[in-house]
Design a protein that fits this description.
Number of domains: 2
CATH superfamily of the largest domain: Jelly Rolls
Order of helices and strands: HHEEEEEEEEHHHEHHEEH
Strand order of the largest sheet: 1-8-3-6
Radius of gyration: 19 Å
Number of strands: 11
Distance between the termini: 42 Å
Structural class: alpha+beta
Shape: elongated
Strand content: 15-25%
Largest sheet: 4 strands, antiparallel
Amino acid sequence: MPKCAIRMQDFLSNVPLFRNLDRAQLARLARGASELEAPRGSVVYNRGDPCTGLYAVVYGQIKLALQTGRGDETVLDLVGTGATFGEAPLFSGRPHILAAAALEDSKLLHVAKDTLLEEVERDTRFCRRLLETVGERLYRRYSEFEDYVLASGTERVIGFLLRVKNGGPDHDAVCITLPASKGVIASRLHLTHEHFSRILRELMTAGLIEVDGREVRIRDVKRLYGYAA
C-alpha cells in the first residue's frame, strides 16, 4: 500500500473507541497524534518499554505476544485495521507486558498518553469508554484462557475457524482466509505448529474442510460445529 498522509481527525472518528466524540475532542486528539510506519517484521514496542500512548491501526496487522528471554513467544492477539492496542498500561504507569510487532507492512496512528489523559479528565464518558475497551479485552483474555484450559486442541481450532467465518450460512459451504500464517495462528491457539497442522489434516480427512495455503473451505458449517461436540 502506498505511503500517504492521512486525515487524522477523520480517521479517528471511525475508530470505535473515538466514534462518539465531537469534532472539538477529535481535533484535540489529532493534535496529539502522529503517524508511524511499521514495515513487516518491525517492532512497535517490546515488553518492558514504557507506555507512551495507544495505537490505532490505519492498515496492516499487528501481533501482540508474550516473549521469553530465549526468544520464544506466545501470540495473544492479532490487531487489524481500525482497532486499537496498547491501552492497558495507560492508567497504571506500568510498562508494557506484551510485545507488539508488525506481521505485514502497516501504518499506525499513535495518540500520546498525555493527550489521552487530558481528554479523560475533560469527559467522564470518554473515560468510561476507554475503561470498557480495556475491560472487554481483559474479558476476552479470560474467555480464551478458559478455552486453553478446558477445550481440546481440535475444539480450539474449530472455534477459531468459525470465528473467522463470522456470520453467513450455518449449513452451506463457505470459504475463509486465515488472517495470519499457520505458525502465528498455532501460537495464538496455544498449539505447536505441528499440532495445528495435524488437526487441520484430521479435519480434511473427515471431509469437513479443504485447505490451500491460507485459504480454507468449510464444506459444511453445521457438521464442523458438531464435530468436536
